[in-house]
Each structure stands twice: as C-alpha cells, then as structure tokens.
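Complex 225.
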Amino acid sequence: MSPVRGIEVDDLELRAELVATTLAMCAARLNTGSSGNASVRTAGGMLITPSGLAPDACTPEDMVVVDADGRADARLAPSSEWRLHHDLYAHRPEAGAIIHAHAPFATALACQRLEIPPFHYMIARFGGNTVRCAKYATFGTQALSDHIAAAIADRSACLMANHGMLVFGRNLANALALAIEFETLCEQYWRVRQLGKPVLLSDSEMREVVERFRWYGKPAEQLPE
Ligand SMILES: [Zn+2]
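Predicted structure with zinc ion bound:
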C-alpha cells in the first residue's frame, strides 16, 4: 500500500483501526448515520473521523490528521467536534482515544441534564462516584469543549446536555469497550428510574470499589494484599 500524503505507512494501520472502531460503534448501537465521532492520539496530534461521512462510507484514507496546533491536513474536513477532542488530549495525558456518540440511553439522560449517581458500583469504572453532565453549548464550539473539560475532570466519561456522551480510554479498543459499558450503565439507570428512586451506594462503599478498579486487570504480583 502506498503512503497517503504526509502520512507514514505505519499510520495506515491506525487509520484502519479508527474506521473499524466507528463501524463497531454502529454495530453496538452507539451511533447511527454520520452522528458521533472518534479519534486516536498520535505522536504529532490526533487522527479523527471526517465531518458528515457515515462510517460505512469511510476508507482509512478519509481519516483526518489534526496536529497539536489544531491544523488539519486532509482533503476532508475533520469532525465538527474536533476541538473538544483536541482540547481533551491537551489537558488529559492519559487519554489515548476518544469516542463521542449520541447513544440512545446516554442521550435520554443527557436531555434531562442528569448527573448519574452511584446507583451501581460499575460507575467507579469512570473514575469516581458519579458521572457528570456537561452544560449545554452549541456543537463544535469552544464553550462546549470548556464545559466538557469541567464535567470530565477526574473522570473518563461525561454526559453532554441535550446532546450525547463522551468517553476516553487508553487506546481505541479500550475507549470502545468503555463506551459500550457506559451506554449499558445509562440504560440500567434509565430502567431503575422507572421503578422509583434507586438506593445509592455510600461514599465509603464507592471508595472501596474505586480502589479495587485501580488494580483491575493488573498482573497478580502487583495486586495489594
Ligand atoms: Zn455530537
């Protein structure tokens, strides 16, 4: 395969992985049509899905390179939400890949502008006792990016008021798995609310879970007593 303009051959694998991630987002019903987007951190900035193109119409060459200064170098425009991806990589060094989706249950909660409380211990997977909802601002604006930075502080997920959800992970596979887990939790919370007020876990119960998740997936010899 020949190199695309300005792109190293190695990056073609990452481009293909990004396309595969967006197709998997559709298969998991996180997204439909051209809504939602995904990106992955690169040495010089990020690789992000293009604006307004449905995942099943995308090729690896359609993925857009955006450098650390926010300059795009491609024949297609980057996703209209490129700014919030760019800002999140700048502020959160642990973010290796980001997924934004209008997933049905997350979006339903986001349209109620709800903060998700510790109704289930798996909330701790996203870094704390709650998952916050970022304030509303028009899509693609700096104001929306700023609201997300505040809502996702010390967390790896947030809802976006009257819009959807944002999740980041170590890499594309991790971000996708977390996005699917998050939408599942949103569905569970949506169902629980049909039954009335859920019983919430206490701060100390959640502290213990957050601590355990810190060691989740680590080799046995590194685990605490
Ligand atoms: Zn959106």
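Confidence is low (pLDDT under 50) at residues 1-7.
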